[in-house]
Amino acid sequence: MTTNATTNGTTNGTTNRAVVLLSGGLDSATVLAIAREQGYQTFALSFDYGQRHKTELDAAARVAAALGAKEHRVLKFDLTQWGGSALTDNTIDVPVSTPSGSSQGIPVTYVPARNTIFLSLALAWAETLGAINIFAGMNAVDYSGYPDCRPEYVAAFQTMARLATRAGVEAADDEAQLTIRTPIINMTKADIVKEGIRLGVDYAITVSCYQADTEGRACGRCDSCRLRRQGFITAGVADPTRYA
Fold first, then answer.
1. What is the CA angle 199-31-15, rounded to 5?
2. Which of 33, 83, 84, 211 is surrounded by the most beta carbons within 10 Å?
């Protein structure tokens, strides 16, 4: 599996097209910039799934425009129907991080099967576009401990995708097979920030907070805010985040 590829997208036919999962946060904005630098024509995909922090979708639109996405689509479905997460059930509070870091175990902000759903829909769009690359912003270093952000999960999904699609079955060789690219999966948050700055990402237009207000201002207390803030501090970069 190629998760940290640096090869450029080709310019023939549709093979330079890539679907990029775009939440509007720091990580996905950086991944979109990486895909652009590697020569891909990017098709950004965001999701309105009933999340508490829906203001991230406004950020996603800003990021897609700023980083030159060929197209940006927002798919809507409702994961609040069964909840099970602080992000999709308003009766569950978003936890506040302690000074020592995030809580042990998988936190209540984990949304059941979210990345599987997201990648499946990205896979469907990629097939219709004739794209064989999907970029996603999973990170397994400075992250909240979600099981669907681990390299072994990405590898398993890619194997499934190659077995489950017409494009995978008809691919002439491995180079023509669909690939899930996760270029920041082994990077620290500080390294992600540095890479984004190098690529010209304006982090002031991104929103990472799990409970940002309607104006996109961050709470500064949730796990996502803690990781983001520490990333800027460690990178030695001024934090442009707007806090409530």
1. 105
2. 33
How far is it, in rounded angstroms, from Cα 198 to Cα 32?
Answer: 13
Is the Cα torsion angle 218, 220, 223, 224 positive or negative in sign? positive
**Contact status, residue 20 vs residue 31, Cβ threshold 8 Å:** yes
Give me the amino acid identity at 69.
Answer: A
- Closest-CA residue to 132 (of 5, 4, 1, 14): 14
Q: Bridge partners of 181? A: 135
Q: Which residues on neighbouring strands pair with residue 73, listed in sequence order?
A: 45
Three-state DSSP class for residue 42: strand
Q: Could you give the CA distance from residue 130 to residue 76 in angstroms, rounded to a whole number? A: 23
pLDDT tens track for 90-129: 999 999 865 444 456 889 999 999 999 999 999 999 999 9
Which H or E run contains 64?
Answer: helix 56-66
State which amino acid sits at residue 241: T
Q: Which amino acid is at 166?
A: R
Give tens-digit pLDDT for 195-205. 999 999 999 99
Of 237, 214, 192, 242, nearest to 29 by C-alpha is: 192
